[in-house]
Amino acid sequence: MPEELTASPAAAAGTFAIGGDLVVNRMGYGAMRVTGPGIWGPPPDKASALATLRRAVELGVNLIDTADSYGPYISEELIAEALYPYPSGLVIATKAGWERPGPGWWTHNASPKHLAEAVEGSLKRLRLERIDVLQLHIPDPAVSFEASVGALARLREQGKIRHVGLSNVTREHIERARRIVPIVSVQNRYSFADRESDFIVDYCEQNSIAFLPWAPLGQAKQAHEAVKKAAEEIHATPLQVALAWLLRRSRVILPIPGTSSVKHLEENLAAAALDLPQAIWERLSSVDVPPASLRG
Fold it and tell me: What's the pTM value of the predicted model, to 2 decimals?
């Protein structure tokens, strides 16, 4: 693996400076899918998962998103196994505050005590002395939001976290959190067909906060039909079109498509250079589907 990340497909859409100091190529990679079925346990083909992670970096990805709940723990462990010692400039963003007691089962736990323990665990698994971006996975209804964010702020002061981010939040959450600690990223469900977070994207752009969208294809049948038609017109894949729409939507959007296949990874990263015609951009932007609630 090269010591320095070089220009490549992931760099075609330009860069963004997370927190003002972590310069990353706008096309990133989400490492949720390198785990087993249902985001539980080890992958069925570990060699393929490791190869995909390594290929992502070879192709210029220098932003990898993960979470301690993916596996749980498996995603972070595979990232370290595949990429450590990390190349210069690689940013790993992980999340804490959501636990996995069993397959298909997610439970809230954003207590200050748990968040401190989770960060220690992620540091160990990722073989890091400091986490570049630690995102609160989701607000915990049983814990004061200010207490959760305050715990991350203290971990930042202790040097265990470089930057703090949020996931699955409202604009009110972001504003409340920013009174406690600088917020450098927001990760919400968002796509051309699911624009419930439209005004949050605008808020992030106004404040130079990175926005990491998940579920880039949306879930509605109407949306899939629209993007499939557009993809056929410009000889691209549906996901490439959906990702190109996101990249054009705002300079702060950093897509993080995930896959455990090298072939699909290469196809996804090619979206960074896809020129989406104005007519298709407008048609996709006008897709009208029912709003979806925040999930993660």
Answer: 0.94
